[in-house]
Design a protein that fits this description.
It holds the Pfam family DUF2007. This is Putative signal transducing protein. InterPro entries: DUF2007, N-reg_PII-like_a/b. It is a single chain. This protein has 74 residues and is of the alpha+beta class. The protein has a single domain, classed as 2-Layer Sandwich (Alpha-Beta Plaits). 43% of the residues lie in helices and 23% in strands. The chain has 3 helices and 3 strands. The longest helix is centred in the first third of the chain and has 13 residues.
Length: 74
């Protein structure tokens, strides 16, 4: 995301996969946020981004635990 951000990208994929992984993370006490450049561009009135290329971010302190959970379930 940004160098001074407290979040780190842990996965990129389709909306369905991202929603599934967010549920797994939430069930394990890890909050996450997503970034969908395609949707953001469409809402702003211009194209941009790649369809089904949604990024999943967690706080840096949760990256190791989140990656273990993601690798178990993908």
């Amino acid at each position: 995301m940004f160098p001074d951000s407290n979040y780190e990208r842990v996965y990129t994929g389709s909306l369905i996969t991202i929603q599934f992984l967010q549920t797994i993370l939430q069930d394990n006490g890890i909050n996450s946020i997503t970034r969908d450049d395609m949707k953001s561009g469409m809402m702003a009135g211009f194209g941009g981004g790649i369809p089904d290329h949604i990024q999943l971010f967690v706080e840096k302190e949760d990256v190791t635990k989140a990656m273990a959970l993601i690798n178990q379930h993908k």
